[in-house]
Amino acid sequence: MNTAFDLTGSGGRLTMVSLVQADITFNDPEFHRKELTVFATRNSTAADFRRIISLIESGTADTTPWITHRAGFDGMIGEFENWLDPEFGVIKAMVEVG
């Protein structure tokens, strides 16, 4: 979680999704230089996860738009640079293994 700040590009948005129970630290001057926006999610309960999984399994929650780019494991390296470029409009990139 700490290195996520380093991996986020200038002007980027970082969404923290975790169950970390410890402190998270980051370099404040670098954070401001990059002008990052940080979003945090709330901790969900097991019941929340069961409900969401049920909605996905039933088709009520359409997850199709969530994954905008895909590559096989062997092709991932060739695509990675594009995935980092905002011009490519990546929301979520999926690496397919197997």
Structural class: alpha/beta
What is the helix/strand order? HEHEHEHE
Poorly predicted runs are none
Major beta-sheet overview: 2 strands, parallel
Beta-strand content estimate: 15-25%
Rg over CA atoms, rounded to whole Å, is 16 Å
Number of helices: 4
Q: Can you lay out the helices and strands and say which pair or pack?
A:
Layout: H1 4-7, E1 13-16, H2 28-34, E2 37-40, H3 46-58, E3 69-72, H4 76-84, E4 93-96
Parallel strand pairs: 1-2, 3-4
Describe this structure in words.
By secondary structure, this protein is of the alpha/beta class. It contains four helices and four strands; from the N terminus they run αβαβαβαβ. The model has no long low-confidence stretch (mean pLDDT 90).
In short:
By secondary structure, the protein is an alpha/beta fold. It is built from four helices and four strands, in the order αβαβαβαβ.
